[in-house]
Amino acid sequence: MEEGNQTRVTEFVLLGFTDSPYLQVVIFVFSFAFYLLNITANSIIMTVVIIDPHLHTPMYCLLANLSLLDFCISSVTVPKMLCNFMVEKKTISFEGCIAQLHFFHFLGCTEAMLLTAMSIDRYVAICHPLRYVTVMNDSACICLTSSSWSVGFLYSLSHTILTARLPFCASNRVSHFFCDIKPLLKLACTDTYINEILVSIITGFLAVSTLFMILVSYVYIGSHLMRIKSSESRQKAFSTCASHLTVVLFYYGTAICTYLGPVTNDSMNKDRMTAILFTVVTPTLNPIIYALRNKEVKQSMKKFIYGNAVWWPS
Fold this sequence. Notes:
By secondary structure, the chain is mainly alpha-helical. The chain is built from ten helices and five strands, in the order βββααβαααβααααα. The protein has helices at residues 21-51, 58-85, 94-127, 132-135, 138-164, 181-187, 193-226, 231-259, 265-291, 295-309; strands spanning 2-3, 6-7, 11-14, 91-93, 173-174. It has a three-stranded mixed sheet. A two-stranded antiparallel ribbon has the order 1-2. Helix 2 packs parallel to helix 5 (138-164) and helix 8 runs antiparallel to helix 9 (265-291). Mean pLDDT is 84; it is low at 1-5 and 309-314.
């Protein structure tokens, strides 16, 4: 589309990782296998939490939301990436690119908020067990989850509007396997300094504030666990906390490495690698790390699988 003497970009080319056919096959097989495992594991967890009345508690409600987020955040980027491995024209429309950017950051920010809510839930359950049912009631759970989704949407909307308003009139070759803020800023034919500052400030504030709240929760939890005399109770609480902290470590490690640095060629190469962890690996490991180590979830899964297999002829 012509605008004055400039041609407005109507589609982008996603360059992906490499031009090597061998490496493309390796990455395709790796990503496809992880994506299948992701949608299978997270779908099972969501299903058992919904159908098992014993899991209708705030802890498992938050866990089901985490599984939904992991399912969706991979589905925003991975299917398009896999399709691009099999076609010569690796393009995405301008509108599709902005939509992909929006939903990726919407789900990513929501996950940060949800991990914070899960740490608050663990703090109340471990430090104030007698008040847990009163404090973490249905209303509190709905408030925490709805707030997480709402903040994620507003955060993403700010980035989406700022990026969509930029003029893209030169190269349309995105140095990434999906549409993200930093590679798009590099293509804009105007000064993007303000956009980069806003990305760092907004993302930095949310990352630091949520991580700070998680760490404070675990400082109190750790202090409380030190005073517990029962080794069995301490071990049970520590197991749940260790799983959650591992998920937090994976999430914040990749997010901070990707979004709190400057837009340079070297950073773009690093971002593609961390993005694979963020969109392919971490969402697949989360249900294994957090849920499948949980005794109640495993029992519900066995019940679910056995119950659905009873009708099967022997």
